[in-house]
Design a protein that fits this description.
With about 260 residues, the protein is an alpha+beta fold. It folds into two domains: about 1-135, Fructose-1,6-Bisphosphatase, Chain A, domain 1; about 140-250, D-Maltodextrin-Binding Protein, domain 2. The chain contains seven helices and 14 strands. The chain binds D-MYO-inositol-1-phosphate and calcium ion (2 copies).
């Protein structure tokens, strides 16, 4: 299953790179939420590879509707994570593919085709960047930490838009970034390139693969209270573990989603 997931991610990455920087048809799903023909082309490639090998498995993917058959296997797919970046020619985006087996994510693959970096993890077997095992950073203080986050698509309409948390972390941490691809943010925590990451109102396809990479790399993943993380939930807090409690304290001061 790992090999097929990687094959699907690499094939989708090829599609993304072939079309990157070309004129695209861009549609609006919402006020600031975009979708391009390439999101769909990438998803088609992934789904046909997964379906070709595992015709009975279920698929939950961002762009298409797939009938749920009640299989114990469910693939969770974001064919292009970082669409806004992609549509602007800003080279920061990924393909994210996870496998959930009876409600537990057992496999996660996040592929950055621009840098050709493939982050992957299997439950209980560690996390890897290409062939090399990765682990989270050893930064022990929030004040020395580099963090990342993102802002939800309803940010102009909802007051629960993460702006307050961003200001608080900007004060408390060494620096905060808003790279624009949640799956890569999580993979970067796993690789020790970021010390922590938080975001709200994400979808399961944004986080399913990346959260496994964080935990298999020795990091911690939770909601904003430090409780059990749920890929179908609304809060995501990931860190190297050492700064987790300090991040929880900062998050107490801002607005939380329902
Ligand atoms: C988005 C990216 C972004 C995050 C958004 C996501 P998309 O995914 O992961 O970093 O802040 O909330 O929706 O729409 O580019 O697949
Ligand atoms: Ca996404
Ligand atoms: Ca997407």
């Amino acid at each position: 299953m790992k090999d097929i997931a990687i094959e699907a991610a690499l094939s989708a990455g090829k599609v993304l790179m072939q079309r990157f920087g070309t004129a695209l048809t861009v549609e609006h799903k919402g006020d600031v939420d975009l979708v391009t023909e390439v999101d769909r082309a990438s998803e088609d490639v992934i789904v046909s590879i997964l379906r070709g090998t595992f015709p009975r498995h279920d698929i939950l993917a961002e762009e298409g509707q797939y009938v749920d058959s009640g299989s114990r296997y469910r693939w969770i797919v974001d064919p292009l994570d970082g669409t806004t970046n992609y549509a602007h020619g800003f080279p920061w985006f990924a393909v994210s593919i996870a496998l959930e087996v009876e409600n537990e994510v057992t496999l996660g693959v996040v592929y950055n085709p621009f840098s050709r970096e493939l982050f992957w993890a299997e439950k209980g077997k560690g996390a890897f960047l290409n062939d090399v095992q990765i682990s989270v950073s050893r930064t022990g203080r929030l004040g020395d930490s580099l963090l990342a986050t993102g802002f939800p698509y309803d940010r102009k309409k909802s007051a629960v838009n993460n702006y307050d948390h961003f200001v608080h972390f900007q004060q408390a941490a060494q620096a905060c970034r808003r790279p624009g691809s949640a799956s890569l943010d999580l993979a970067y925590v796993g690789a020790g390139r970021l010390d922590g990451y938080w975001e709200m109102k994400l979808k399961p396809w944004d986080v399913a693969a990346g959260q496994l990479i964080v935990s298999e790399a020795g990091g911690r993943i939770s909601d904003f209270d430090g409780d059990l993380f749920d890929i179908y939930g609304v809060e995501c807090l990931a860190s190297n573990g050492r700064i987790h409690q300090e991040m929880i304290e900062v998050l107490k001061a801002g607005k939380r989603p329902e």
